[in-house]
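Record 1 of the preview.
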Amino acid sequence: MKALLCKEFAAVDNLTWEDVPDPSPQDGEVIIEIKAAALNFPDNLIVQGLYQFKPPLPFSPGSEGAGTISAVGKNVTDYKVGDRVSFMSGWGAFCEKIAVNKKQVIKMPDTITFELAAATQMAYGTSYHALIQRGNLTENNEILILGASGGVGLAALDIAKAFNARVVAGVSSEEKAVVCRNYGADDVVIYGTEKLDKEGQKALSDQFKEKSKKGGYDIIYDPIGDCYAEPALRTINWKGRYLVIGFAAGEIPRIPLNLALLKGCAIVGVFWGSFTSHEPQQNVKNIIEIGKLIAIGKINPFISKSIPMKSAKDAIKMIGERKIVGKVVLFID
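->
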């Protein structure tokens, strides 16, 4: 079979698309012939050795996908050859076949395509867990979403609007602002791509606050961090929840903790990968609920591009340069 291989932690350009042996199912595993896999920002980090964990070399990036089961190992009774399934794997999805533990597999509804199933687990799983379990989202909430045009950002926007919350989207360009407005954002702030000094951060904080109808946000969803985090936190409402999703803009910000004291707010970490390990049953319930919302048209995942799997290296470079809007899906051609 073919696979995108990372042989050393280095630049994305070092990845290669080449032949590797087919996997065999171990006890409790299934083999999935991959039809589609989704691109996520950690794919850019993990191949450079910059993510929270480092897989043993060599490995394939890619943490989520969908396909059909071609073989099952011992003690697998819930799945059979031919089943249409989606999966989460941590890494290894950018290839033609993958061995996955049965606990990481979910049967797909017949009404959902492989591309859609591949594109929803991480982005929508992260955002649903963040907003519902960690953010206690209600329809009366006003939400500021940073990086709102990216995969998890648009998912958060989609879910928040499904719950009838008011959403202000923070983005880096007018092009991305148009996407968010079309996706239901009530208002938009464009903060550009340049690093902000103290004056720039103060001006951005003023922009965020001007867009709030309540004088402050009940939930702030932040997957980008860097110099945009503190200006956003300064606009949080009393007893608001600041959701820390990631640091796609670069640096991990240093937050003055007196802001949490003065605002009576909670700074809440959201690491969906650990959540799926610690609370697997709740995660499955979340994924099932997401599927129901898709089926009735309450949420509509935005797949901006479909790219052949063999071109995954180019897609990973694009997401590292923050040029991706919505989700990019890789398919086997």
